[in-house]
DNA sequence: TATTGTTATACTCTATAACTATA
DNA sequence: TATAGTTATAGAGTATAACAATA
């Protein structure tokens, strides 16, 4: 083993502490993000899963199987979630003319409106970001991209 | 309405796009974080909630009510989660000599070991961070702190 | 035969309310 | 009376397996 200086050891320890602090901060953000999302959904009488599906369908109609892929869950679960959204008039199932096995779920007018309002209500992440300068937001964007292994774009 | 330059409008639009991109990146991180956490828990036959409670108790023993506070759920839910952890020998309930109403849940030796291994397996957030220089990690830390409205510390 | 969506089943998490044993 | 924990209950999300309709 090569001998190393005390300084090298001290630097490693500081690095580890710094990394750990950033990891903890990210955990805090994850926690806050979820809390706010669930609370916003609850304001409209929706569960988190229902709100997520509604948000997906507000962007574009999707076959049941595609919803399951987006949610990373089994297709059988989607049946119940869409059932509940449909019972409240926020979503509807349409046949696919090209393949009669497929049912395409789509947000209704009311569903799209609810999705919009819900999205507008999600102030966390958007509000604190407003306090950062454009340069800081760019710096944050670039660092987050690198964390996600995304190209510099 | 005061007249404004095209440049001002263009800047606002770019700002909004930037903010939205950062928000989407954060959503991606939240999603990844959860996926990895659930997958790591599943490797040990634990649900996400069970893994979170075990992680809490590996740090320090806690009365049932304190666990509920940390999880932000009703105390009645904790009974079942701790029941399942206890049935697997990962956690045990101890009496509190100072107040005989209280039951203190604590990780067993096996539980602490599982919690350690689980924590070590959570590479997301830690691994990509290793690719950032100390200066970049400090920059990220400061930006995240500001997002969380935390003092510069 | 393979695929889409559903149903049936079982388990977990969740909140609410009622209960017990302490304080 | 108030508090800590539990039990009972009901609703929702989840995975697995089996099924009907369609490809």
What would your notes on this structure say?
Two copies of one chain form a homodimer. Chain A has 153 residues and is mainly alpha-helical. The first copy, chain A, has two domains: 24-121, Winged helix-like DNA-binding domain superfamily/Winged helix DNA-binding domain (Arc Repressor Mutant, subunit A), CATH 1.10.10.10; 123-153. Chain A is 67% helix and 8% strand. Chain A is built from seven helices and three strands. Chain A has helices at 6-43, 48-59, 64-71, 75-87, 109-121, 126-130, 134-147, and strands at 62-63, 91-95, 103-107. The first copy, chain A, has a three-stranded antiparallel β-sheet with strand order 1-3-2. In chain A, a hairpin with a 7-residue loop joins strand 2 (91-95) and strand 3 (103-107). In chain A, helix 2 (48-59) crosses helix 4 (75-87), helix 2 packs across helix 5 and helix 3 (64-71) packs across helix 4. Chain A is elongated. The first copy, chain A, starts with 5 loop residues before the first helix and ends in a 6-residue tail after the last helix. The model of chain A has no long low-confidence stretch (mean pLDDT 91). Chain A binds chain B through residues 14-15, 18-19, 21-23, 25-30, 32-35, 72, 125-126, 128-132, 134, 136-141, 143-149, and chain B through 14-15, 18-19, 21-23, 25-30, 32-35, 72, 125-126, 128-132, 134, 136-141, 143-149. Chain A binds a DNA duplex (23 and 23 nucleotides) through residues 47-50, 63-65, 73-81, 84, 99-103.
């Amino acid at each position: 083993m090569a001998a190393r200086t005390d300084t090298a050891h001290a630097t490693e320890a500081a690095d580890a502490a710094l990394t750990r602090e950033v990891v903890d901060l990210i955990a805090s953000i994850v926690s806050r993000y979820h809390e706010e999302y669930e609370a916003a959904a609850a304001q409209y009488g929706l569960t988190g899963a229902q709100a997520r599906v509604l948000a997906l369908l507000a962007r574009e109609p999707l076959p049941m199987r595609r919803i399951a892929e987006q949610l990373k869950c089994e297709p059988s679960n989607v049946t119940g979630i869409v059932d509940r959204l449909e019972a409240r008039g926020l979503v509807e199932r349409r046949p696919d003319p090209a393949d009669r096995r497929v049912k395409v779920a789509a947000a209704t007018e009311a569903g799209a409106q609810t999705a919009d309002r819900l999205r507008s209500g999600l102030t966390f992440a958007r509000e604190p970001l407003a306090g950062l300068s454009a340069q800081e937001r760019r710096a944050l964007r670039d660092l987050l991209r690198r964390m996600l292994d995304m190209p510099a774009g």
